[in-house]
Amino acid sequence: MSDHVLSGLLKKRSEIAGLLEHYQDAVRQCVIDLDNVDATIRLYKPDIDLEDVRPKPVPPRYAAYKGQVTRGVLAALRDSDKPLTSRDLALRLMADRGLNTADKHTVRLMQKRIGACLKHWRNKGVLCSEPGPKLFLLWSLAHENDNRVS
Question: How far apart are CA 109 and CA 86, in angstroms?
């Protein structure tokens, strides 16, 4: 094995080991914080069963605020002089939010979320779609296009 490959692998191993230590410290601190909150709760209600308190789920990756996707989609469609695909809209919204548009997994995830938004607003009569290239639908505001697909 060449020296530069081994050097790169050792560097990567060191990086991963450092991340592991960092996250172990974070978990340790979370356990301490949880114990402190539990003790404070027990000051107010000593007989409480904290096992019944369910953990709050972690928000999904790249979560948006309520209405943020809809506002972005509608603004992009208003600003565009032609109908757009869900991929076009995903790339525009990702760029607006500072997300990496070169990451194919993230683009696909955002495209699915935007697709759900588009279908919702099509069903409400706000948007319309028409067949586009490669089985994509082209989306536009309903008042701009009379060829609605329901």
Answer: 11
- Tell me: the pLDDT tens digits for 92-139? 999 988 889 999 999 998 999 999 999 999 999 999 999 988 888 999
Structurally, the chain folds into a number of domains equal to 2
Examine the domain organization and report whether 79 and 134 are in the same domain: yes
Q: How many CB atoms lie within 10 A of CB 94?
A: 22
CA distance 2 to 142: 61
Q: Residue 134, by phi and psi: left (phi above 0), alpha (psi -120 to 50) or beta?
A: left
Same domain, 74 and 106: yes
Domain assignment of residue 150, yes or no: no
At residue 150, does pLDDT exceed 50?
A: no
Burial class (CB in 10 A: 0-12, 13-18, 19+), 117: buried
Give the pTM: 0.57
CA distance 51 to 72: 41
Contact 122, 150 (CB under 8 A): yes
In a domain, 116, yes or no: yes
